[in-house]
């Protein structure tokens, strides 16, 4: 099954192009969900919404709609997976407001952070506390793209995110029975 969507749905420059002009913001997600089967919640990378917000989004979309949730930069960029228990538990508690519409959770790592297996493995182990959830990791530094990391992801059932961008390293390695592809740079790759 292929799910196609975008990273976020609230963009002013979409007015008159995708959304009808003057469409109120509270009508944008239901409109979006008529045209796409999924969306990546990018907002959660910058500020984790309350559970009630996730619940509201769930109610605004069709039964078969899926939300991917981008994990907080607090965990990936600031703490760099150090002491991940509390931030992950908070993310899971709030995102669970999506219920059956909760799809994969994406963790994107900074392009300046080099390979650190001592932090990766405990994080992968911690993800196993939420066995019903799917995860994907996007490594933006090429030092992570090695067989040892792929093996650990595969053992944990975590998908390697496949970024399509002129500035992010890509390795077409599958580590789970599903994958997550991200097209970066706005209009890059369109023709």
TrEMBL record:
It holds the Pfam family DUF72. InterPro entries: DUF72, UPF0759_sf. This is DUF72 domain-containing protein. It comes from uncultured Leptolyngbya sp.
């Amino acid at each position: 099954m292929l799910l196609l969507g975008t990273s976020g749905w609230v963009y002013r420059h979409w007015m008159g192009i995708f959304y009808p002009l003057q469409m109120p913001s509270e009508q944008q997600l239901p409109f979006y969900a008529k045209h796409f089967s999924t969306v990546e919640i990018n907002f959660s990378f910058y500020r984790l919404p309350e559970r009630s917000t996730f619940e509201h989004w769930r109610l605004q979309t069709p039964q078969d709609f899926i939300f991917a949730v981008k994990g907080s930069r607090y965990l990936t960029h600031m703490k760099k997976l150090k002491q991940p228990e509390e931030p992950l538990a908070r993310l899971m508690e709030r995102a669970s407001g999506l219920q059956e519409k909760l799809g994969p959770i994406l963790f994107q790592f900074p392009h300046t952070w080099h390979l650190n297996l001592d932090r990766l493995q405990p994080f992968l182990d911690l993800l196993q506390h939420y066995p019903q959830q799917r995860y994907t990791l996007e490594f933006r530094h090429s030092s992570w793209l090695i067989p040892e990391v792929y093996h650990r992801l595969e053992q944990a059932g975590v998908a390697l995110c496949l970024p399509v961008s002129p500035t992010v390293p890509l390795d077409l390695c599958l580590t789970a029975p599903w994958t997550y592809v991200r097209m970066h740079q706005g209009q890059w790759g369109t023709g």
